[in-house]
Fold this sequence. Notes:
Elements: H1 7-24, H2 36-59, H3 64-93, H4 96-110, H5 114-120, H6 138-165, H7 178-202, H8 204-209, H9 211-225, H10 229-233, H11 237-257, H12 270-282, H13 292-295, H14 298-325, H15 331-358, H16 360-364, H17 373-396, H18 410-413, H19 416-431, E1 469-470, E2 476-482, H20 484-488, H21 490-500, E3 502-508, E4 518-519, H22 529-545, E5 549-553, E6 561-563, E7 566-568, H23 571-592, E8 596-599, H24 609-613, H25 620-623, H26 629-644, E9 648-650, E10 665-666, E11 669-670, H27 680-685, H28 687-694
Parallel strand pairs: 2-3, 2-5, 5-8, 8-9
Antiparallel strand pairs: 1-3, 4-6, 6-7, 10-11
Amino acid sequence: xxxxxxxxxxxxxxxxxxxxxxxxxxxxxxxxxxxxxxxxxxxxxxxxxxxxxxxxxxxxxxxxxxxxxxxxxxxxxxxxxxxxxxxxxxxxxxxxxxxxxxxxxxxxxxxxxxxxxxxxxxxxxxxxxxxxxxxxxxxxxxxxxxxxxxxxxxxxxxxxxxxxxxxxxxxxxxxxxxxxxxxxxxxxxxxxxxxxxxxxxxxxxxxxxxxxxxxxxxxxxxxxxxxxxxxxxxxxxxxxxxxxxxxxxxxxxxxxxxxxxxxxxxxxxxxxxxxxxxxxxxxxxxxxxxxxxxxxxxxxxxxxxxxxxxxxxxxxxxxxxxxxxxxxxxxxxxxxxxxxxxxxxxxxxxxxxxxxxxxxxxxxxxxxxxxxxxxxxxxxxxxxxxxxxxxxxxxxxxxxxxxxxxxxxxxxxxxxxxxxxxxxxxxxxxxxxxxxxxxxxxxxxxxxxxxxxxxxxxxxxxxxxxxxxxxxxxxxxxxxxxxxxxxxxxxxxxxxxxxxxxxxxxxxxxxxxxxxxxxxxxxxxxxxxxxxxxxxxxxxxxxxxxxxxxxxxxxxxxxxxxxxxxxxxxxxxxxxxxxxxxxxxxxxxxxxxxxxxxxxxxxxxxxxxxxxxxxxxxxxxxxxxxxxxxxxxxxxxxxxxxxxxxxxxxxxxxxxxxxxxxxxxxxxxxxxxxxxxxxxxxxxxxxxxxxxxxxxxxxx
Length: 700
């Protein structure tokens, strides 16, 4: 690899960023355009290793300060600028609760740990709807920065090890220990690829962001850089052209055939990764492949030059615009957002990137001085985030409304009729356009975090064990079965079990409806096989436990139901399949449990109450909602099936709604954390009403 930046490399960067933008913009014939990120990883591994090898060859070692200084000037200025602007725009356009989340994401991005942050949240990278962070794409920068931190240290260790092995033998001071480096890289690549395949199948969302599942892609680029120049120079023009064409064809094929449903990276990533490696290898010889004429065209090279800024800007441009409009973008709106991306990228490249690479700032920030960019970047982002945190807190604390009361004693509120009375009073307050209470539980800005704790038994992570809760020494046993809607009721059942003397087990798994049907995960077009396996395991546990009571509560399938290999979303096809699934479920449970109860699913809103309550200056009436008809009809399917099976039904709707209107604040408690999940605080407040209705608070 020569010292000057090769035209084909810049062309590859252009291809990579364009397919990423196209994929995220919804170009239907490039569903796998996200593999452009993998191309970037291979290029990074190739270029960085080449730079380090040349330094070892000329100086005998690597200046870590010099290397990290160059990386700081290259990466930090543009990344910091885009981060700060994104937070500022989110404060202007988003709800307070979403703006604060963006500020939190920015802090992780500044620490180059965004991939760990989003993996921990089990975020779906492909879901470009309003819940997606405009800084989510910084995960790939985090992976690269972690590579920049570790690889020079590992390379230096290999150089030192090779010199120890040559002690006593004559050798050139600047010789590169290619054999040692190849052995290390092959071992790293093999381990990483194996983990990538395993982890992508078991936990695809977390695997997508993982450095460990991506390390092999960077290692492949590094291995290409280690191919001796003499070996590549022997390659003629036609063999080099054939190699480059095959490589480009592999990248294009990946963009066309891979989809959001493909477990990734895993095996699927070999197409773009090896394809990119072939193109880089083909361009390393003296005889240039004919594809270079295309990749080195001036417009293509300009896009390649701008590729870093384009990558930084494209995702915020798409996501923030959707946030401003409050809906998904149309094709015309997407085109405008992409055009704005190119304008912003051109300005950022010339006004931010180039000055810090070659201009006066670069001259002033030689070697060790440039390292100050790391703390400076952190300081800028920290200041921006702190200001956003303070501002959102001030705005959220601006209410002065009193809590709603029903004029009944606290003891009465712990009974079903008292809860109904408070809900009616809250609906009346909403219809009278009363102010939102100032002292809310949970705190308004903590609403999204109001998620019931499942302890060590988070079955979505693959755990398969029982975790008794409540009164663990009790003789009576209750099992709660369902999905995330069942999980939301855990605070109520915890209180009921502790007071009433029940040992409780919560066999709940997010997105996995209780009915014995094959569903698809949210935003994926594939059978949710993990759900089927969990249902079988949960059924076996109920049969083993022989509980006194089983409570079933579950959301209807949100992404359709499979009949054979075909997924159906239309109600006329989903209803009979769902009914059969509930029939099978209740039949199995009645054989294993003394008593089975269906807790009807809660009403669902068409909009997010959290967003409504933290946008503008809403009153209680602005954010109250009428239940979605589709959700109501599918909940009726479970009720009908339960009654036909002579299973008891408990309907919580009167504890949430009155005369067709559902308030998002009951008394002083926020009822929903999003469109369809109860807050832990409100669920806990319903323990008395639910426990008495189920008869669980009666003496055994």
